[in-house]
């Protein structure tokens, strides 16, 4: 198995096309074709992470935060910290791959894993993406329907939430006349033909639309297949921001704060009390999610857990929702559990390739206790 196999597997789950447009996701440093020995998972790359990867014979590191976010003007291995890390990766033949906001915006990604860590039920996106889906309609001869639809399904067509291979099929007739230069697979040149066809319709996300079209064209029997592509405004149930779910049992705010510290292993919460006497519906967003506060309020959440909340945001919501800043690292690190589980499933129980999570903490934020 190569690094490229791992990258394709991760990006099939969390496509780079759904990432924030200014993000730098994907291959950061190294060789895609390198055969994988062991893999190290971490929130961000530090010297200590690379040292542990070397000790555990990992030649691939998967991080959430990209090492390379801004364009490099130079690589100064004497003075610049990131340059030193790049040098260390290259010298030790380690490939670095990052899944950042694409993992944030994906089902079972960062926010979903945060919700699962809090043991929420009925988890859904807090804010679904919109206007990033298409409906593709293609006309297929009846005896080629299974082949064409199967090729489209295989690369992501017809995926709606927990359902795959979703389509609508209508029977009808197609007509055409091929010119002298045509090469019809059905009928003859310069003859009016009438063929029984199936109108095949399915939804496809923007991340997969080109793959689905190419897959269809590769197996369609016609020289010039007729197809339509319609832009949809529907909310996308497959991708979005944040997550919302229900506690199994309601708690009062004090109990919920205590519960949150235990689940997230965070002893330093910043919060404003909100208005609910009982906490039942909870919204979350791993990392910086202040822009979703109003979504949480509109969805009827009693509490919203995220990070990097500004002072005035606390002021604005003090009587609307139990707003909790649990820390950037503390709300994102749990996502590595899902990445590890999926990679374990990919490599298999008997694989020689081992998946490790960095054993330390890369959190740069420390807290001073004067007691």
- Percent strand equals 25-35%
DSSP strand tally:
15
Output the strand order for the largest sheet: 5-10-12-13-14-11
Q: Helicity, in percent?
A: 25-40%
In total, how many domains does the architecture comprise? 3
Order of helices and strands: HEEHEHEHHEEHEEHEEHEEHEHEHHE
Distance between the termini: 52 Å
Shape: globular
Q: Would you identify the CATH architecture of the largest domain? A: 3-Layer(aba) Sandwich
Task: Give a quick rundown of the structure.
With 371 residues, the protein is of the alpha/beta class. It contains 12 helices and 15 strands. A 6-stranded mixed sheet has the order 5-10-12-13-14-11, with helices on both faces.
What would you say this structure looks like, in words?
- This protein is α/β, with parallel strands linked by helices.
- The protein folds into three domains: 3-102 and 334-357, Udp-n-acetylmuramoylalanyl-d-glutamate--2,6- Diaminopimelate Ligase, Chain: A, domain 1; 110-128 and 240-331, 3-Layer(aba) Sandwich (Udp-n-acetylmuramoylalanyl-d-glutamate--2,6- Diaminopimelate Ligase, Chain: A, domain 1); 132-232, Alpha-Beta Plaits, CATH 3.30.70.120.
- The protein contains twelve helices and 15 strands.
- A six-stranded mixed sheet has the order 5-10-12-13-14-11, sandwiched between helices. A five-stranded mixed sheet has the order 1-4-3-2-15, with helices on both faces.
- Helix 10 (311-317) links the parallel strand 13 (303-307) and strand 14.
- The chain is globular, with a radius of gyration of 25 Å.
- The chain starts with a helix and ends in a 14-residue tail after the last strand.
